[in-house]
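USER:
Working in pairs, take the chain set out below, taking as long as you need, and write a paragraph about the fold.
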Amino acid sequence: MMAELARSWTAPTDLDGTLERVTRAAVELIPGADSADILTLAGHGRYESHASTSALPAELDALQVRFGQGPCVEAAVDGFVTRSDDLTGEKRWPRFTRAAVQAGVHSIVSFRLYTRTDTAGALNVLARTAHAFGDEAVTIGEVLAAHAAIAITAGRRERQLRSALASRDLIGQAKGMLMERFSVGADRAFEMLVTLSQHTNTPVATLAEQIVARGSDPRTGR
């Protein structure tokens, strides 16, 4: 079943769709699981909840981010597998623990999402009963977390590549407009962009976008 899931995740789809498959598989395959979600690192100390199978995981993620403590945040930043078999006696995250127990969650296990070069966040699995997750649950969760990490990393790189290609196209268009306007070569047009970027403290790609958006003056053609 894990092999079939891995092959299915290579089919073309958006990142959110892939993450939803991961969390659904976590609930279906991990013994004792009631719900799951994925908490990603969004940069600058920000976190985002994705693909929650119910409202509960996302709500608990928000509490952990607000309190600055909890198994999901700990797994995403420091650990590999963070597990609590009975939250009623948990001492590591007192503020989060009280809120989780009040919400009816008594067991939780979080798996760090990482590759050799990137850490993406954590796969979080919740249960309403104590001592819900055994060794089999941890093994399955680690496999699912590995696939989720690869999907997130690949999705981020694809978005970065698309952004870079879009910026390159805009810069090329802006250079062409400057070459025509000032009768200069490609190198000189790019130097003009760089100089203006430095003087205005504006990225070259942003300047290029502004030049292309402004276009030519319909009255003069320039």
Q: What stands out?
A: The chain has a mean pLDDT of 85. The CA atoms of residues 110 and 124 lie 4 Å apart. Helices lie at 2-8, 15-29, 55-67, 71-77, 94-102, 135-182, 186-200, 204-214.
